[in-house]
């Protein structure tokens, strides 16, 4: 399965990729990431999304890896769409830190860093949600009658992200997945 096919199999991802391109946030396109330890990354400076060539190759024959790649793409494309909000957080931190550095002692950066981390965490969570929604859209497109259990199975069988979201029990032939709290 090519990257283009993968994107087109998730209507939500396809729409978000087009939105990121229209915003000028994904104008560098897609590149292969040769690092075997990386799934890939979005570079907000170049507008480029790198995707691991090895992982993408594995996704062609392994649905679990394909689900993981879809979640990764959903997350990173969401970061591309939110590029300005992410940059605004860094700019805000820089401005506040500069004001503190130029001010009188004691110089306490804790409130500025706490604010930055809260804003950044919210954007990262939006990316995680986008990843799950990307996979859900793919499942729904392939099976309009899909249940929440179908989504749980696809998430739980996602090789890279399962442990973050599910506890697995049962046997290899009859696994059971329990969503984690939070």
Helix content: 55-70%
Beta content: 5-15%
Strand arrangement across the biggest beta sheet: 1-3-2
Instruction: Quickly give the structural class.
Output: alpha+beta
Separation, N- and C-terminal Cα atoms: 33 Å
Largest sheet descriptor: 3 strands, mixed
Gyration radius from CA atoms, angstroms: 19 Å
Taken from the alpha-carbon principal axes, the silhouette is: globular
Strand and helix order? HHEEEHHHHHHEE
Output the number of helix runs: 8
Low-pLDDT segments: none
Q: What is the overall pLDDT average?
A: 87
Q: How many β-strands, per DSSP? A: 5
Descriptive key words:
8 helices; single chain; two-stranded antiparallel sheet; alpha+beta; 182 residues; 3-stranded mixed beta sheet
Can you lay out the helices and strands and say which pair or pack?
Blueprint lengths: L2 H6 L2 H12 L6 E5 L6 E4 L4 E5 H7 L3 H19 L1 H20 L7 H33 L5 H9 L5 H4 E5 L4 E5 L3
Parallel strand pairs: 1-3
Antiparallel strand pairs: 2-3, 4-5
Helix pairs in contact: 2-4, 3-4, 4-6, 5-6, 6-7
